[in-house]
């Protein structure tokens, strides 16, 4: 049982499960040696409202990476990067990704371009061009809806603009594999889906999320820029932190290496995304059931006004909704979830 | 499967398995939620010769802990502290331990007083009095031989001085449980052991190590200050890093909580130490077998002169001997190792 080595560069929190705390344990459970570089050392995730600790400076990150390199410890088969605060630190990671890609064309690099969510940027805008420079180095990216729009400068309002955004990622930025999870299933998207992928027995509404896996194809053999696979999952109400970090880690863990892993068509990516989706969803359900059984004061709904007046309110809610990663470790370790499949979106690229 | 929450405060390395990297994954595998406070963020352990990164300042540690406290996230059932660089940072941890002990008399605190090894101090001498002040707050300590001598100011050369050192720890410093692992089985110690605990079919020599678990007893019921249990294990040649950190984590993980866990006699401690010893030994064997199968240049023996001339030599050896924690995770998870038992050292306290 030795699947190789992953270098993970993301945030660290003492309490709870976001960033590295959501990614490293699952990767280890699945048999990977994980090298862990912490971009921040915080008490807890920022959603609590109160948090403290420090960000690693560019010089500190460089010192860690340079000494690893001198000691020939910088030879991971896979690279995973998540939240990295500030453009200076991000530039260090860009330089690292360039170096690793150059040394090893077979490197599997999952880049999660953490920029923001639901229309709000939560990083400084000067990191956007750096992320764009990183895209061609990646094997897989896992942006959310908003991050796709920000990186491609395309507002996605219909299938045509969705095609345009994916085309930019695959062709202009040379990203072989794109997984966009958690897309609200708006009416236009619901209507465009192939019948077998539409959530059964329900009207189109925001209680479903769609995951799209788009894997670039060899365009010398056909006109479609990518093979597109999809799956809709039910949306659990309320906010859970670290879900995207867990999902990205699981996509990377389940992505099969191979001589042309990056360009091997849709099957590798769709397999990995399907497993990651099923396991993440099962973990969320476990967490949701746990949270639902807590005393009422630990699950007061989001109310910005009340939350601002009583910080405890938010803190208790956040704590009650931390991922049950340790308690649900058997979910992560389960070898193959039989019903974890994505549907092919045939004809996606036909205008 | 929810065993409660452990706050772990120790060093972090990006590559390899020492400090938190050797402790946290095993604790998570065994079902504990682990809050992880990093006292350093280094590239690799210092044994490689070259390393880089940063130490958390006392102010940074305080910021993390204070924000956890404000958010009511500082309520662990168990506390684990390992390597903490410098007296200022250590004083912060002393203050934390005092606060947690005061809030929760049932707190199970495993203190690994990391001072040095084999006659050499590898911390600043000004931390020694701070560690002495921490001892009465602990439930279990896991010093090595040299650390027992340093903390008690007793040179251990015979059974009488061993008794004196343990008595000081139990009575003067009020430590309920002491586990000293990896004591070279010198002739005087071999000769003093009860017959059933002596390694069978062999002369006394340095190829055996003894583990002693000493659990304070209720002295109103009898004259002996503690129940003493022992087990000898064969010693693998060469140096492995992170072994003590893994061992301490496993002792804590297997120590049963209870209304009087700290003072419940020898059985709880002997059980935990026996499991920790068996699992650590199995992990070491796995690592040793892996290292033995590496190409010759990755397993060149320690030679200070050659190592100084060629830093690569040492680096490769260190890398080849990193614990196979991920590959051996089934060892950690195994529920009960039947032959993992310690022998009672009856009559240890009789002069």
From TrEMBL, chains A, B:
Keyword Transferase: yes
Pfam families linked: Phos_pyr_kin
MF-aspect GO terms: ATP binding; pyridoxal kinase activity
A single GO cellular-component term on record: cytosol
Enzyme Commission number: 2.7.1.35
Entry keyword set: ATP-binding, Kinase, Nucleotide-binding, Transferase
Boundaries of every Pyridoxamine kinase/Phosphomethylpyrimidine kinase domain copy: 81-181
Keyword Transferase attached: yes
Classification via InterPro entries: PM/HMP-P_kinase-1, PyrdxlKinase, Ribokinase-like
Family in the record: Belongs to the pyridoxine kinase family.
PANTHER family: PYRIDOXAL KINASE
Protein name in the entry: pyridoxal kinase
Species this protein is from: Phanerochaete sordida
């Amino acid at each position: 049982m030795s699947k190789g080595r992953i270098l993970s560069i993301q945030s660290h929190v003492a309490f709870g499960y976001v960033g590295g705390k959501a990614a490293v344990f699952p990767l280890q459970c699945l048999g990977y040696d994980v090298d862990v570089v912490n971009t921040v050392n915080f008490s807890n995730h920022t959603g609590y409202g109160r948090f403290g600790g420090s960000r690693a400076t560019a010089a500190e990150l460089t010192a860690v990476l340079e000494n690893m390199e001198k000691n020939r410890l910088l030879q991971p088969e896979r690279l995973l990067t998540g939240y990295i605060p500030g453009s200076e630190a991000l530039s260090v990671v860009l330089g690292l990704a360039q170096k690793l890609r150059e040394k090893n064309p077979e490197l599997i690099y999952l880049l999660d371009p953490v920029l923001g969510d639901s229309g709000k940027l939560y990083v400084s805008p000067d990191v956007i061009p750096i992320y764009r420079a990183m895209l061609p180095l990646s094997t897989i990216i896992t942006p959310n809806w908003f991050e796709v729009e920000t990186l491609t400068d395309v507002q996605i309002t219909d299938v045509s603009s969705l095609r345009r955004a994916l085309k930019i990622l695959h062709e202009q930025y040379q990203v072989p594999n794109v997984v966009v999870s958690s897309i609200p299933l708006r009416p236009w998207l619901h209507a465009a889906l192939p019948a077998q992928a539409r959530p059964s027995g329900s009207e189109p509404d925001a209680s479903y999320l769609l995951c799209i896996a788009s894997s670039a194809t060899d365009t010398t053999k056909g006109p479609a820029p990518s093979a597109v696979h999809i799956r809709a999952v039910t949306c659990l109400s309320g906010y859970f932190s670290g879900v995207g970090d867990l999902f990205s880690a699981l996509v990377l863990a389940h992505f099969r290496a191979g001589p042309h892993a990056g360009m091997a068509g849709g099957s590798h990516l769709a397999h990995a995304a399907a497993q990651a989706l099923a396991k993440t969803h099962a973990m969320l359900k476990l967490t949701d059931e746990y949270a639902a059984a807590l005393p009422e004061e630990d699950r007061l709904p989001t109310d910005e006004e009340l939350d601002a007046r009583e910080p405890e309110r938010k803190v208790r809610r956040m704590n009650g909704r931390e991922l049950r990663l340790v308690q649900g470790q058997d979910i992560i370790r389960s070898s193959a979830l039989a019903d974890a499949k994505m549907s092919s979106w045939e004809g996606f690229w036909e205008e």
